[in-house]
Amino acid sequence: MKVVKKTAEYTVYQKRNNRYGVQGNNKQWINSDDKVKILLAEGLITVSEPAAPSEPEAEQEVAEAAGDETAEAEKDAD
Fold first, then answer.
1. 8-38, pLDDT tens digit by residue?
2. pTM of the predicted model as reported, rounded to 2 decimal places
3. Measured distance CA(45)–CA(19) in Å, rounded
4. What's the angle, vertex CA 28, arms to CA 27 and CA 30, rounded to 5?
5. Would residue 60 count as lying in a domain?
6. 31 lies in a domain?
7. The total number of structural domains that make up the chain
8. Structural domain of residue 28, as residue ranges?
């Protein structure tokens, strides 16, 4: 592993598989949200937003819901 950045609070390492490891000044590895926050602050990673559902899918869900309501209304009429 090679040192990418060293600060008073942590050291950022780059592994051979190009992933990053963050080790605190107490020699404990930092994981999860704290690691993501550090890597984002250093500009080493980017986080993408989850894709929003496309409009045709949303229209299809509305149509299915409307179809269910009409089917229930027909059953009640019988």
1. 999 999 999 999 999 999 999 999 889 999 9
2. 0.59
3. 10
4. 125
5. no
6. yes
7. 1
8. 2-42
Which residues pair with residue 5 across a beta bridge?
12
> Does residue 2 contact residue 12 with C-beta atoms inside 8 Å?
no
Query: Minimum mean pLDDT among 11-15, 40-44, 60-64: which range?
Result: 60-64
12 burial (CB, 10 Å; 0-12 / 13-18 / 19+) is: buried
**CA separation for the pair 64, 78 (Å, rounded):** 22
Does residue 45 contact residue 21 with C-beta atoms inside 8 Å?
no
**Helix or strand holding residue 75 (H, E):** helix 55-77
Which is more confidently placed, 57 or 17?
Answer: 17
